[in-house]
């Protein structure tokens, strides 16, 4: 679990290292606030995303299910600054078994709340959906802006990174992939 005391000490040390006085009025509670924020931002480290996908329904539906534009916030593991954007999750059920639409969004939230790279987040989502739902196929598309590119380094705000992961029938069926890409546009 998150060690709030250790986080507060680390934040205080960072403030001191950049030449700030952690005891001045505006910063007195900053270590506590940052520790609480990191507890929220990294809560996905302590959750199994597949737990959300245990609720399923028999609907005799074996055609495309797509939830698009799921907003998320994650944290770049290289710089510990946010990246944020939208995830699009598509799957084709097997044997007519579907899950609740909100479960897809909850799974995205759980996976996003970890320090990581976008590529791993995309892969983890696809693998989680494949293992938990055992659909005919899954396609995950993640589009995000990385603050490590926007506010530091190359300083290119607005630049988006898009990653995809395809599993099952979407790997072999270019028409099915194209259908999802067209619907996401």
UniProtKB/TrEMBL annotation:
Q: Does the keyword Nucleotide-binding apply?
A: yes
Its quaternary organisation is:
Homopolymer.
Under InterPro entries, the record lists: GTP-CH-I_C/QueF (IPR043133), GTP-CH-I_N (IPR043134), GTP_CycHdrlase_I (IPR001474), GTP_CycHdrlase_I_CS (IPR018234), GTP_CycHdrlase_I_dom (IPR020602)
> Where do the GTP cyclohydrolase I domain residues begin and end?
8-184
Catalyses which reaction(s): GTP + H2O = 7,8-dihydroneopterin 3'-triphosphate + formate + H(+)
Keyword terms of this UniProt record: GTP-binding, Hydrolase, Metal-binding, Nucleotide-binding, One-carbon metabolism, Zinc
User: Which residues of this UniProt protein bind Zn(2+)?
Assistant: 76, 79, 148
Q: Which organism is it from?
A: Shouchella lonarensis
Write down the top EC class of this protein.
hydrolase
UniProt-listed Enzyme Commission number(s): 3.5.4.16
Q: Which region is the signal sequence?
A: none
Which NCBIfam families does this chain map to? folE, PRK09347.1-2, PRK09347.1-3
| Superkingdom per UniProt | Bacteria
**Family statement:** Belongs to the GTP cyclohydrolase I family.
The molecular function GO annotations come to: GTP binding; GTP cyclohydrolase I activity; zinc ion binding
Keyword Zinc (UniProt): yes
Pathway(s) served: Cofactor biosynthesis; 7,8-dihydroneopterin triphosphate biosynthesis; 7,8-dihydroneopterin triphosphate from GTP: step 1/1
PROSITE patterns of this UniProt entry? Answer: GTP_CYCLOHYDROL_1_1, GTP_CYCLOHYDROL_1_2
Q: Which GO terms describe its cellular component?
A: cytoplasm
The protein, known as? GTP cyclohydrolase 1
Q: Which BP terms does GO give this entry?
A: one-carbon metabolic process; tetrahydrobiopterin biosynthetic process; tetrahydrofolate biosynthetic process
